[in-house]
Design goal:
five-stranded antiparallel β-sheet; Heat Shock Protein 90; 11 helices; Helix Hairpins; globular; alpha+beta; Beta-Lactamase; single chain; seven-stranded mixed β-sheet
């Protein structure tokens, strides 16, 4: 049981987007998750067992041991339980700004320190560009540019708010979700188990809404950059649907997938965004289909001018959408009606994000539906073929 819990905890930590590092009271690294590997450039095997000072600039190392000793004696610390921006150093010697929060954990009479790290390099560059741009604007004719400056300042405030809030919310939310997962594997009575499952479910709903709000903000501000990498469309769709099968089964629904004869599935595009489109459409079908069937079909056409036409269709026999509401569902924070929102939940952003992502890829999304007789969404894209 202990071994299982340790393995499960490692899996949770490896899937958190922030770097997580655990050190003992002497500064020796005990744990180093995958995000930490990406941030610092060290493999976990290279970092574990070393002093955490390998991750800090040399000019800060002299005070490091003194800081820990003072905290253990007095309980006073500037970072413990608070968090602030400091500097770290990568394996290749690159110095970079990072957000660092540290919490003390006691285990078997020993004290450990858990550090949560986020690389602020790109965020700070963005803030510097904003400051430079703001200074440039202030040098212009204030009378002629007053309205424009007001709009830009509002946009900057929105971007800053989302950047800061996403960090402030994600960090504790990851902890809530992770800890509730671990609690589900401990001994609890029926009522406690119900409470923990509600915490876990609510945490995931909040994370989904947060991700949707950030995505729609990025799309509207033009910050979405599409990847161009090779991927297997067949595997991508399979993996996306696998995530939703359990939810469908809970609803009493069945997901059926149909691929045309597999000829060309290796293409070039943005697999992350295409997976997001598939998951949004299938997830939407699962939500509104109780004890029914959801059909997912993928058709690829003939290669022409270096591109392959792809058609992804998601069809359900759920509640359907009235004709006069079908345009509205692609708007932000909208569903067919308020009673739908109350019954089925959701942020009302999934389809809006899907439509905008499809349009960014120069594709189209089509809808056929009739109230009470299900809905059929079809996404048509043309993606680059591997030459």
């Amino acid at each position: 049981m202990i071994k299982h819990s340790e393995t499960y905890l490692e899996a949770v930590l490896d899937n958190i987007i922030d770097g997580i590092i655990v050190i003992d009271s002497k500064g020796i690294i005990e744990s180093f998750n995958k995000s930490a590997e990406q941030i610092f450039g060290y493999e976990a095997s290279e970092a574990i067992g070393k002093n955490v000072k390998i991750l800090t600039p040399p000019e800060h190392n002299e005070k490091h041991d003194e800081y820990i000793e003072n905290y253990l004696k007095t309980g006073e610390g500037k970072i413990i339980g608070v968090g602030r921006e400091v500097y770290g150093i990568k394996k290749d010697g690159t110095k970079f700004p990072m957000e660092l929060g540290i919490n003390e954990v006691a285990q078997d009479g020993k004290k450990y320190f858990v550090g949560v790290i986020r690389d602020n390099t790109e965020r700070n560059k963005f803030m510097e560009k904003i400051e430079e741009y703001t200074m440039d604007v202030e040098l212009k004719n204030l009378a002629l540019e007053e309205a424009k400056i007001g709009a830009e300042q509002a946009s900057i405030a929105k971007s800053n708010f989302l950047a800061n809030m996403s960090h402030e919310i994600r960090t504790p939310l990851n902890g809530i979700i992770g800890m509730s997962q671990l609690l589900q594997h401990t001994e609890m009575d029926e009522k406690q188990d119900k409470y923990v499952k509600n915490i876990f479910s609510s945490g995931n709903i909040l994370m989904d809404i947060l991700n949707d709000v950030i995505d729609i903000s990025k799309i509207e501000s033009g910050e979405i950059d599409l990847e161009k990498v090779e991927f297997d469309l067949y595997e991508l769709v399979r993996q996306a649907i696998d995530v939703l099968i359990v939810k469908a089964q809970e609803n009493g629904s069945d997901i059926r997938v149909n691929f045309q004869e597999k000829e060309v599935f290796d293409i070039i595009g943005d697999p992350t965004r295409i997976r997001q489109i598939v998951m949004n459409l299938v997830g939407n079908a699962v939500k509104f289909t109780e004890k029914g069937t959801i059909k997912v079909s993928v058709i690829t056409g003939q290669k022409a001018d270096g591109k392959i036409p792809i058609s992804i269709t998601v069809e359900d026999d759920g509640i359907g959408i009235p004709k006069d509401k079908q345009e509205k569902i692609f708007e932000k924070f909208s569903q067919a009606d308020e009673s739908t929102t109350r019954r089925y939940g959701g942020s009302g952003l999934g389809l809006a994000i899907t439509k905008q992502l499809v349009e960014i890829m120069e594709g189209e999304i089509l809808l056929k539906s009739e109230e009470g007789k299900g809905a059929k969404f079809t996404v048509n894209l043309k993606l680059a073929a591997i030459s």
